[in-house]
């Protein structure tokens, strides 16, 4: 019987099972109990999982798992999650490397619906999206086209054009709060850390940390001006609006946990408030959190959710149109197709009811249930 640090293999496995008791059932049964344990040393456990997506799911439980495992063993232990599908036995059911993660995500999302994780997203931003990556310095105008819609975003040079996942999560939160409260003035709270927890962001500092990125992207989004132009059939219309008419952020990036004397607030402009509350797209906030590392995955999920709300027959969306809507910055259409297909796998994991087929000509959508109950009312 192998011993490490005076603890037998059976003892370490029992400690791991005890640590799992506090993990939500979907993640425990779908991901962590299927894992392969590989102790690198007495104080370091490597947990081998099937996919990067499973690693992301498990990472949400890392802190509590580490504490409970340390308590069971009687000394601190570091845990590292590693993706290595080849190290695990093949699945008995459909051989997809995301099958287990999909099952876990679907179960978590069903739980989210029951406890009130329904969220909303601005319909105009579902049809034409903000940039995925930071634009070159000095560029303060961005244009995205989708059929007859042309979306133009203008920004002050000091903030730049909002980009990446964080403005998308902010848009979901802003739209949801506006629909829920029916008020343009929204309370972000007195603590930056608590607001970050709502978006499932990490309290990491530095230029690339979530603390810095949240503050910078919040300023960029709330300072942006949007113009939506529709043209076709001899008609041309244009609507323009500033996202926020007033922003008051008291967050201190150096002390994100500290409560401030005054609450941070954002007051949406009358035009933007009307736009996002008129016909918002229902989405699942927990699903957005699970795919938050990929702006393209977020865009794809929201776009599919919106299309499925009114899709009545099988529809082929050509790759050229999809690239125009989602894929600015790709030198070749086939590069965009490959990236888009990868993100579709992430979306399928959090939206398993959606039906589509990737074909050489484009994405073939079939009528499917929406990811949330469209008539549900937030409480």
Structure description:
With 379 residues, the protein is an alpha+beta fold. The chain has helices at residues 9-20, 25-30, 52-59, 62-73, 99-115, 123-127, 165-181, 192-198, 210-223, 270-278, 285-290, 295-308, 319-326, 333-350, and strands at residues 3-4, 7-8, 36-41, 44-49, 78-83, 118-121, 141-146, 149-154, 185-189, 225-232, 235-242, 244-248, 264-268, 281-284, 315-318, 355-358, 362-366. The strands form six sheets. Strands 7-8-10-11 form a four-stranded antiparallel sheet. The protein has a three-stranded mixed sheet with strand order 3-4-5. Helix 1 packs across helix 4 (62-73) and helix 12 packs across helix 14. The longest helix is centred in the last third of the chain and has 18 residues, at 333-350.
Number of helices: 14
Mean pLDDT: 82
Query: What's the main sheet like?
Result: 4 strands, antiparallel
Proportion of residues in helical segments: 40-55%
Low-confidence stretches: 92-116, 373-379
**What is the end-to-end distance?**
56 Å
Q: Quaternary state, please? A: single chain
Q: Tell me the total number of β-strands.
A: 17
Which of globular, elongated, flat, extended, rod-shaped describes the shape? Answer: globular
* Major β-sheet strand ordering: 7-8-10-11
Q: Write down the Rg.
A: 22 Å
Q: What structural class do helix, strand and pairing data support?
A: alpha+beta
Q: DSSP strand (E) fraction?
A: 15-25%
């Amino acid at each position: 019987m192998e011993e490490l640090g005076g603890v037998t293999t059976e003892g370490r496995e029992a400690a791991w099972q005890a640590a799992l008791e506090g993990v939500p059932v979907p993640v425990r049964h779908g991901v962590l109990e299927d894992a392969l344990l590989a102790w690198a040393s007495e104080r370091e456990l490597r947990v081998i999982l099937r996919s990067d997506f499973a690693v992301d799911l498990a990472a949400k439980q890392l802190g509590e798992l580490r504490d409970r495992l340390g308590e069971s063993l009687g000394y601190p232990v570091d845990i590292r999650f590693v993706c290595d599908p080849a190290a695990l036995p093949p699945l008995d059911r459909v051989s997809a490397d995301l099958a287990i993660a999909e099952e876990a995500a679907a179960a978590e999302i069903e739980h989210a619906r029951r406890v009130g994780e329904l969220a909303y997203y601005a319909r105009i931003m579902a049809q034409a999206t903000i940039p995925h990556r930071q634009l070159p310095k000095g560029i303060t105008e961005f244009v995205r086209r989708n059929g007859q819609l042309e979306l133009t975003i203008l920004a002050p040079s000091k903030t730049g054009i909002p980009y990446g996942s964080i403005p998308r999560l902010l848009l979901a939160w802003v739209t949801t709060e506006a629909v829920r409260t029916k008020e343009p003035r929204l309370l972000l709270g007195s603590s930056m850390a608590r607001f970050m927890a709502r978006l499932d962001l990490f309290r990491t500092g530095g230029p690339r940390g979530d603390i810095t990125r949240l503050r910078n992207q919040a300023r960029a989004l709330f300072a942006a001006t949007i113009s939506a132009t529709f043209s076709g059939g001899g008609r041309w219309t244009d609507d323009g609006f500033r996202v926020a008419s007033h922003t008051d952020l008291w967050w201190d990036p150096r002390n994100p946990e500290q409560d401030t004397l005054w609450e941070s607030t954002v007051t949406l402009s009358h035009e933007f408030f009307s736009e996002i509350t008129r016909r918002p797209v229902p989405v699942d906030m927990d699903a957005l959190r699970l795919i938050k590392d990929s702006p393209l995955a977020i865009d794809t999920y929201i776009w599919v959710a919106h299309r499925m709300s009114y899709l009545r027959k099988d529809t082929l969306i050509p790759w050229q149109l999809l690239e125009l809507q989602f894929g600015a910055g790709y030198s070749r259409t086939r590069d965009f197709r490959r990236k888009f297909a990868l993100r579709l796998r992430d979306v399928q994991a959090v939206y398993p009811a959606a039906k589509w087929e990737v074909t050489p000509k484009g994405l073939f959508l079939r009528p499917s249930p929406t990811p949330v109950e469209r008539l549900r009312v937030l409480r």
